[in-house]
Amino acid sequence: MLSNEFKINKVYKFVYVKNINKSYVTVYLYVDDMLLLGGNNYMIKSTNKSLTNKFDMKNLDVSYVILGLKISRTYNGLVLS
């Protein structure tokens, strides 16, 4: 992650962030789970492609549940419950 210009979060060591041209992608790692969030689809897809080229991964596409949290999409954004 660090070799791909990601910065590690100083408080949460499982969070990596990459900022480019006022956009971002955030990678959350936990054991064998990964969640990619970003400001635009291009950054998410390019990060996913880069990681897939380096690691044996399955892409489960849009997440609805991760780490026991339910993710719901609303008009105002995402809701975690």
Short description:
The chain is of the alpha+beta class and 81 residues long.
What is the topological layout?
Layout: E1 7-8, E2 15-20, E3 23-30, E4 33-38, H1 41-54, E5 65-66, E6 69-74, E7 77-80
Antiparallel strand pairs: 1-2, 2-3, 3-4, 5-6, 6-7
Radius of gyration: 13 Å
- Compute the number of strand runs: 7
Q: Average pLDDT value? A: 84
Q: SSE order, as H and E?
A: EEEEHEEE
Assembly annotation: single chain
Count of DSSP H/I helices: 1
Number of domains: 1
Shape: globular
Profile the largest sheet.
4 strands, antiparallel
As residue ranges, the low-confidence spans are none
Spatially, the strands of the biggest sheet line up as: 1-2-3-4
**Strand percentage:** 35-45%
Fraction of residues in helix: 10-25%
3D architecture notes:
- With 81 residues, the protein is an alpha+beta fold.
- It has one domain.
- 17% of the residues lie in helices and 42% in strands.
- The protein has 1 helix and 7 strands.
- Strands 1-2-3-4 form a 4-stranded antiparallel β-sheet, covered by helices on one side.
- The radius of gyration is 13 Å and the shape is globular.
- The mean pLDDT is 84.
What attributes characterize this protein structure?
single chain; 3-stranded antiparallel sheet
